[in-house]
C-alpha cells in the first residue's frame, strides 16, 4: 500500500506543479561482450558496415523452439540433475509452494487489478513446473489463471499501476513461453493468452507513455518507475514481436533502459552507486535482470532500435541526456555493460554483516536479490557466497526463483570478497569492515554530491555514518517512515541522521519532486589498511565548511572527528546528533550520561563518548514525541522509536571528537569483546581548543586528539603524556606491540619528545604503522 499512497502523493503534487514544471513531449545463444552504449547515427544506413551480419534491425521473429525466455530447452536436463542437491532442492520446493497457491480473487471478476501480481507469479511457477516435470496438472492450473486474467486494463484503480506491471505481464509472458515449450496449451488458448497480454500492454502504453499527465509519474522520477515500466513493455514486445505495435513498444522501452542503465543516465554513478538507494535499486534491478536475461536467452546479440525521447527530463541532473527522437541506436544488453555490473558490486559493498542491505535513502533494511544470477555472467564466486549467506533471498523486487534454480552457479564452498574496505567517492558511500562474518564490524559513511544525491528517494544526510558490531545494528540510519503520503518521509530530513548541524546555517531541506534539498558532500583523503581505515566527508554550507573524519581502528572501535571552517564571527548553535537502536519503543537499554550515550541490544551494545574543543558541551536528548522525528524510525518493517543523543555547543567554530566503543553484552571482563575503557584527557593549562580521549583495549592503549588550529603546539596531557604537533587530528599508540600513528592536516607529530610522523605541506593524511 505504501507505493500506492506514495503515488497518490505525486498525483496531487502534479496538479499543483503542472504549470510551473510542465511536461514537454519534445524534451528531450552465445555470450556477448559489454557494449559501448549509444551509437549516435543520423540514419540507419550508417549501420551498414562489417557488423551488419551480427546486428539486426528491431526485434527478430519468435524462434521456432520454446521456451526461449526465462529458460531454454537445453536447461531442462541441467535443472533436473541439480534439484537433487541443495540449495536447489530448497528452491524447487519454494517454486512448488508458489505454484500451489490459490487464485487471488480480485475486487471484480472483469477488473484489472494490481493484485494480479501474485496470480502472475503463481501462473509462472505452475507453467515452469509443467515444463520441467512434464506435469499436466500444473499446466492446467497455469492455463486456468490465463483464463481468469482480465485484459480490461482501463478498469484498474491503482495510481501507480506502472510499478505493479512486471509481476503481471512479465510473469504471464514467461509462463506462456513455457506452456508452449511444454506443448501443454492448445493453440487457440495460446493465441487468446497472447491477445490478452498484448491488449493489456497496448492500453498501458497509450495510458502511461502517450498520455502526458500519466507519463508525468515517471517523467519526474527517472528511477525505478520508468525502469519497471520499460521492463514490462519491453518484455511483451520481446515475447510477441509480430504484433503491429511491438516495434513502437520496443523502441520506447529499450531507449529507456539503454539510457537509465547506461553511463549517461545519472541513475548509476561511475563507480556503481545508485542514486535512489538500496531498496529502490533492488526494485529496479530485479525486473531489469529478468528482461535482460530473457533477451540473452532469446536473442543474444545486439539490435538496432529507434530512440524515443518522450520521457527525457531536461531538469538537473539529466540536462545532458543527448536524446534525439528518431535516431537509430544499438541496444547492447545492459546486463553485460559496466554500469549494470558495477551496480552489483556497489550493492555487495553495502552488505551488512547479517547479509542485508542498510537503510540508505528511502529504505529500511532489505535483503538482496539477483546477485547469484549475475555471478554466472560476471564469473564471481563472492556473489554466490553473498547469496548463500543472506537467507537465499530471491524475490525482492520480482520473483527470480526460477532463474536462480536454472542459472546460479553451483559453488557450495564459495568464498567472500578478498577486500574489506571500499571508498566510492562518486557514489558517495564508504564502507569499512573488519571482515565478512556476522559478528564483524561494519561502518558506513555517506557523502553524496551531484546526481548521486539528486533523486526522488534521496535523504539529507551528507556525512552521516552508521555502525554495526558483534551481530547488532547499533548506530542507525532511521530508514523510511512516511506517515503522510502527501509529503516526504519524515526520516528524509537532516534531523533523522547522524550529523553535525548548525542552527543558523542549515542545509536546504528535502523538497518535492526535483527540489532535492541538501548540499553536495564529498568523500576525500581515504587511507585503507588492515588495522586502520580512514575517510573524510566534507560539505560546504553558506559560510562554513564541515570536515568529518571517520576511522575504524584496529577493527575494534570507531572515531568520528568534526572540524568547522567558517567566516562567521559570532557564536552559533551546534548540534552533534546521534541515533542508536535502543530505547523508547525499541526496548533494550538506552542511557545518557555527562560525557557519553549508551545503546545496548541483545547481543551487543555501544557507548559513544563525545568531547569538544570548546568548553561548553552539554549532552541531552531532544524532546520526545512518539512517532515523530528525530526519535521515530522504520528500518525493519514496523515503525518504532529509539534513543537520540545531542551534543550541544554555542561557539564560533568548535570541533567535536567522538569514540564509538562497541562490546558484546555477555563478554567477560578483560576479554577482547568486553567494554573498552575510554578516558577523557584534559590539557594542562589549556581550557579550550583541544579534545582528547584515551582508549584502553586488549592490545594496549591509544590516544586520539583533536585541536583547533590556534591551539598550542606542545600539549601536556592529564595522563602524563606530552604531544607536540601542528596537526588538527592525531591518533597515537601509547602502549602495545601494534603501533599506529595518524596525522591529519599537519607536518609533525611527536610523542614524549620522540618524533613519530613528519609530512610535507599538502599531505592531508599521513599514517605510520609499526
Secondary structure tally, helices: 16
Give the tally of β-strands. 32
Low-confidence stretches: 1-53
β-strand percent reads 15-25%
Q: Helicity, in percent?
A: 25-40%
Walk me through what this model shows.
- Mean pLDDT is 91; it is low at 1-53.
- The termini are far apart.
- The longest helix has 24 residues, at 187-210.
- It contains 16 helices and 32 strands.
- The radius of gyration is 28 Å and the shape is elongated.
- α7 (166-182) runs antiparallel to α8, α8 (187-210) runs antiparallel to α10 and α14 runs antiparallel to α15.
- It is 28% helix and 23% strand.
- An eight-stranded antiparallel beta sheet has the order 10-11-12-13-22-17-16-15, with no helix packed on it. It has a six-stranded antiparallel beta sheet with strand order 23-24-25-28-29-32, with no helix packed on it. The chain has a five-stranded antiparallel beta sheet with strand order 4-5-6-7-8, with helices on one face.
- With 770 residues, the protein is α+β, with helices and mostly antiparallel strands.
List keywords for this structure.
6-stranded antiparallel sheet; 8-stranded antiparallel sheet; disordered N terminus; 770 residues; alpha+beta; 23% strand
Sequence-ordered SSE layout with sheet pairings:
Blueprint: H1 2-21, E1 56-57, H2 75-82, H3 88-99, H4 116-133, H5 136-148, H6 161-164, H7 166-182, H8 187-210, H9 212-219, H10 224-239, H11 246-260, H12 277-298, E2 303-306, E3 328-331, H13 338-350, H14 371-378, H15 381-388, H16 401-407, E4 422-424, E5 429-433, E6 442-446, E7 465-469, E8 472-475, E9 500-502, E10 521-528, E11 532-540, E12 544-553, E13 557-566, E14 572-579, E15 589-592, E16 596-600, E17 604-612, E18 618-620, E19 632-633, E20 640-641, E21 644-651, E22 656-664, E23 677-681, E24 690-697, E25 700-707, E26 714-716, E27 722-725, E28 729-735, E29 740-744, E30 748-751, E31 754-758, E32 765-769
Parallel strand pairs: 1-2
Antiparallel strand pairs: 2-3, 4-5, 5-6, 6-7, 7-8, 9-14, 10-11, 11-12, 12-13, 13-22, 14-21, 15-16, 16-17, 17-22, 18-21, 19-20, 23-24, 24-25, 25-28, 26-27, 27-30, 28-29, 29-32, 30-31
Amino acid at each position: 500500500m505504501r507505493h500506492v499512497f506514495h503515488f497518490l502523493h505525486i498525483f496531487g503534487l502534479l496538479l499543483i506543479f503542472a504549470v510551473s514544471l510542465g511536461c514537454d513531449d519534445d524534451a528531450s545463444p552465445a555470450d556477448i561482450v559489454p557494449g559501448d552504449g549509444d551509437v549516435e547515427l543520423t540514419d540507419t544506413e550508417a549501420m551498414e558496415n562489417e557488423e551488419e551480419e551480427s546486428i539486426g534491425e528491431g526485434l527478430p521473429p519468435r524462434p521456432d523452439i520454446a521456451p526461449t525466455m526465462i529458460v531454454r530447452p537445453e536447461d531442462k536436463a541441467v535443472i533436473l540433475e541439480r534439484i537433487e542437491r541443495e540449495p536447489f532442492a530448497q528452491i524447487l520446493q519454494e517454486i512448488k509452494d508458489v505454484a500451489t497457491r490459490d487464485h487471488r480473487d480480485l475486487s471484480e471478476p472483469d477488473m484489472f487489478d494490481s493484485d494480479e501480481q501474485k496470480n502472475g507469479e503463481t501462473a509462472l511457477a505452475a507453467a515452469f513446473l509443467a515444463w520441467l516435470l512434464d506435469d499436466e496438472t500444473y499446466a492446467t492450473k497455469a492455463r486456468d489463471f490465463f483464463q481468469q486474467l482480465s485484459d480490461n486494463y482501463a478498469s484498474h484503480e491503482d495510481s501507480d499501476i506502472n510499478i505493479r506491471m512486471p509481476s503481471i505481464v512479465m510473469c504471464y509472458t514467461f509462463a506462456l513461453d513455457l506452456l508452449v515449450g511444454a506443448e501443454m496449451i492448445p493453440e487457440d488458448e495460446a493465441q487468446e493468452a497472447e491477445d490478452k497480454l498484448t491488449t493489456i500492454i497496448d492500453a498501458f502504453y497509450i495510458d502511461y507513455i502517450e498520455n502526458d499527465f500519466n507519463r508525468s509519474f515517471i517523467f519526474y522520477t527517472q528511477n525505478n518507475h520508468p525502469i519497471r515500466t520499460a521492463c514490462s513493455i519491453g518484455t511483451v514486445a520481446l515475447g510477441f514481436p509480430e504484433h503491429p505495435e511491438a516495434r513502437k513498444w520496443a523502441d520506447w522501452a529499450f531507449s529507456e533502459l539503454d539510457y537509465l542503465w547506461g553511463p549517461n543516465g545519472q541513475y548509476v554513478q561511475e563507480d556503481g552507486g545508485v542514486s535512489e538507494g538500496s531498496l529502490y535499486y533492488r526494485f529496479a534491478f530485479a525486473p531489469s535482470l529478468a528482461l535482460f536475461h530473457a533477451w540473452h536467452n532469446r536473442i543474444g546479440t545486439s539490435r538496432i532500435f529507434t530512440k524515443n525521447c518522450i520521457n527525457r527530463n531536461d531538469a538537473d541532473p539529466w540536462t545532458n541526456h543527448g536524446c534525439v527522437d528518431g535516431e537509430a541506436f544499438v541496444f547492447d544488453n545492459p546486463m553485460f555493460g559496466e554500469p549494470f555490473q558495477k551496480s552489483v558490486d556497489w550493492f555487495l559493498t553495502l552488505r551488512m554483516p547479517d547479509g542485508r542491505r542498510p537503510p540508505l535513502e528511502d529504505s529500511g533494511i532489505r535483503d538482496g536479490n539477483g546477485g547469484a544470477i549475475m555471478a554466472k555472467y560476471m564469473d564471481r564466486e563472492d556473489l554466490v557466497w553473498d547469496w548463500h549467506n543472506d537467507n537465499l533471498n530471491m524475490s525482492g523486487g520480482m520473483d527470480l526463483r526460477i532463474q536462480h534454480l536454472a542459472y546460479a552457479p553451483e559453488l557450495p564452498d564459495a568464498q567472500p570478497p578478498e577486500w574489506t574496505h571500499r571508498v566510492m567517492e562518486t557514489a558517495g558511500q564508504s564502507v569499512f569492515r573488519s571482515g565478512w562474518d556476522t559478528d564483524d564490524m561494519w561502518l558506513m559513511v555517506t557523502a553524496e554530491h551531484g546526481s548521486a544525491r539528486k533523486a526522488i528517494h534521496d535523504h539529507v544526510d551528507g556525512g552521516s555514518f552508521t555502525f554495526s558490531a558483534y551481530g547488532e545494528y547499533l548506530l542507525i540510519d532511521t530508514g523510511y517512515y512516511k506517515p503522510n503520503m502527501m509529503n516526504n518521509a519524515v526520516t528524509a530530513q537532516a534531523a533523522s541522521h547522524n550529523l553535525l548541524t548548525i542552527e543558523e546555517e542549515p542545509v536546504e531541506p528535502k523538497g518535492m519532486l526535483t527540489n532535492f534539498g541538501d548540499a553536495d558532500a564529498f568523500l576525500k583523503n581515504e587511507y585503507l589498511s588492515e588495522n586502520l581505515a580512514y575517510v573524510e566527508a566534507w560539505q560546504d554550507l553558506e559560510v562554513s565548511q564541515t570536515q568529518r573524519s571517520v576511522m575504524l581502528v584496529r577493527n575494534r572501535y570507531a572515531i568520528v572527528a568534526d572540524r568547522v571552517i567558517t567566516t562567521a564571527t559570532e557564536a552559533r548553535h551546534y548540534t552533534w546528533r546521534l541515533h542508536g537502536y535502543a530505547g523508547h519503543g525499541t526496548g533494550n537499554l538506552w542511557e545518557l550520561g555527562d560525557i557519553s550515550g549508551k545503546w545496548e541490544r541483545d547481543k551487543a551494545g555501544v557507548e559513544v563518548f563525545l568531547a569538544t574543543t570548546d568548553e561548553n558541551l552539554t549532552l541531552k536528548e531532544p524532546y520526545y514525541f512518539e512517532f515523530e522525528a528525530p526519535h521515530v524510525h522504520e528500518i525493519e518493517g514496523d515503525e518504532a522509536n529509539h534513543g537520540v543523543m545531542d551534543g550541544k555547543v554555542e561557539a564560533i567554530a568548535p570541533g567535536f571528537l567522538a569514540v564509538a566503543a562497541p562490546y558484546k553484552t555477555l563478554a567477560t571482563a578483560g576479554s577482547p569483546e568486553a567494554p573498552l575503557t575510554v578516558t577523557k584527557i584534559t590539557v594542562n593549562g589549556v581550557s579550550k581548543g583541544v579534545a582528547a580521549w584515551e582508549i584502553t583495549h586488549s592490545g594496549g592503549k591509544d590516544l586520539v586528539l583533536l585541536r583547533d588550529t590556534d591551539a598550542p603546539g606542545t600539549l601536556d596531557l592529564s595522563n602524563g603524556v606530552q604531544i607536540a604537533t601542528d596537526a588538527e587530528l592525531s591518533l597515537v599508540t601509547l602502549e602495545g606491540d601494534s603501533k599506529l600513528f595518524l596525522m591529519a592536516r599537519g607536518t609533525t607529530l611527536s610523542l614524549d619528545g620522540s618524533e613519530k610522523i613528519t609530512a610535507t605541506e599538502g599531505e592531508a593524511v599521513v599514517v605510520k604503522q609499526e
